[in-house]
Amino acid sequence: PTDAPGVTVRRVPDPMGCRAAGHADITFDQVRLPADRLLGGAGLPVDWLVTSALTFGRVSVAWGCVGILRACLRAATGHATTRQQSGAPLADHQLVARHLAELFVAHEASLRCCEQASRCWDGNTPELVVSAVTAKHLAAGHAARGAAAAVQVLASAGARDGGPVARAYRDAKLMEIIEGSNEISQLLLGKHAAAVWS
Fold first, then answer.
1. Rounded to two decimals, what is the model's pTM?
2. Is the pLDDT of residue 44 over 70?
3. Which domains does the chain have, with CATH numbers?
4. Does an H or E element contain 138, and which?
5. How many CA atoms does the CB half-sphere of 78 hold within 13 Å?
6. What is the Cα–Cα distance from 151 to 6, expressed in whole angstroms?
7. Which of 66, 94, 194, 190 has the alpha carbon at shortest distance from 133?
8. What is the mean pLDDT of residues 56-70?
9. d(CA 129, CA 50)
10. Which residues pair with 88 in a beta bridge?
């Protein structure tokens, strides 16, 4: 409980992105809890215990990244098919078409990975934690790169504060950090790969 003695919550006043999320710094100073307030998972390594507690958030973040990719794909294709450059729509230029193709593939791969994590959630399968970490890691990386590509395609129109692509660009970077950074995800997935595939 946030009102437990020793728990201090300080809201982050102006986050770069994900502004509606209510980011906060939390400090624990000699907090003691009764046994009925402890999370399950006795005997698990600490990194996997924390990971299991973050599973719902990771699945949610991954789906949020799918939304970011969808918004970027919609904005970039809308702009590239209507904006003319050298007598042709931007989408007809090969380097722009490459950005659109990569955005499409990023959306599709992230969507499928999130669907798998959600199936594991619904079925409460043993693969749930790994599927959630995988979905969050994959989708967050794709969202950050995809938002950058969308800004590139829209050029100055994509850099307008308040526009969907500028917002996606800021939010996507935070998606690589919240609910465990991409580096933490890589460490967890590396341990899993070594345990399962060796």
1. 0.82
2. no
3. 46-197 (1.20.140.10)
4. helix 128-154
5. 11
6. 44
7. 190
8. 95
9. 11
10. 85
